[in-house]
Write a structure and sequence with these properties.
This protein is an alpha/beta fold. Helices cover about 50% and strands about 10% of the residues. The chain has helices spanning about 15-30, 40, 45-55, 60-80, 95-105, 135, 155-175, 185, 190-200, 210-230, and strands at about 5-10, 35, 85-90, 110-115, 140-145.
Length: about 240
């Protein structure tokens, strides 16, 4: 590959089943020559980020602060710095993935959705979209149906190999190139807000996962929390 394309895997990562599948797919794509922005490896560990923020802001605000920092990393760094988003659209569909692929389209990223799930809550498994809700499917430039029965270790390996090869084939055939964000994305006020927040929190920090890096991020959050909270909704109770 003449230019190393960067892939962002948009996927749920909340249990061993999900994280194991994500890791195996990413291992194959990296072996094929891609760089990846892999949240469960390259993102923040909740506990360490929580510890860095604790004592600097009221304790009842720490959880919201952690959520905001992670949001700015994924949406303001990982997605803008990637050329291709590879999105898991299995059931139950992950809300974060839905937002990520929507903003990825605003940023002119190439989106490949895939589905290994045989459940079909919005149609029939034999439909073109395999019974998925058509809204997230229509955010994709390509959609892959990839049945993964995994009845044996060999079958599991074969299924993952086929999915990774299909993603690789699509990217190579489309001749995806390294690119920045287009002007219309940079001028979008919602995208601007995310990029600005990410710049405030992370610009110039060599290692965001080091103790010093986390402390600097926490310090910047405290100093700029008013501006950073503009992404946070106003809460009304009725």
């Amino acid at each position: 590959m003449s230019e190393q394309i960067t892939i962002y895997p948009a996927a749920a990562l909340f249990n061993g089943r999900e994280t194991s599948f994500n890791l195996e797919l990413i291992d194959r794509l990296e072996e094929a020559g891609y760089e990846t922005k892999f949240p469960q490896r390259d993102g923040f560990e909740f506990g360490r980020l929580t510890n860095a923020l604790s004592g600097k802001i009221p304790q009842n605000e720490v959880s919201n602060a952690v959520q905001q920092v992670i949001y700015f990393l994924d949406m303001g760094i990982f997605i803008p710095q990637s050329e291709v988003i590879v999105a898991n659209l299995d059931e139950p569909q992950d809300e974060g993935v839905m937002v990520e692929i929507s903003y990825a389209k605003l940023m002119d990223k190439f989106v490949i959705g895939y589905r290994t799930d045989v459940r079909s809550p919005y149609g029939n498994a034999t439909d073109d979209l395999g019974g998925i809700h058509f809204f997230p499917a229509f955010q994709c430039d390509y959609f892959i149906k990839s049945y993964q029965p995994c009845r044996t270790q060999a079958e599991k390996t074969e299924g993952l190999d086929k999915l990774a090869k299909k993603v690789d084939d699509i990217i190579r055939n489309q001749r995806i190139k390294k690119n920045g964000l287009p002007k219309y994305a940079l001028e979008n006020p919602h995208v601007q807000k995310i990029l600005s927040g990410a710049e405030v929190l992370f610009e110039g920090i060599e290692d965001i996962h080091s103790g010093d890096g986390l402390e600097e991020i926490a310090k910047r959050y405290v100093e700029n929390q008013g501006a950073l909270k503009t992404i946070y909704p106003l809460i009304e109770i009725s």
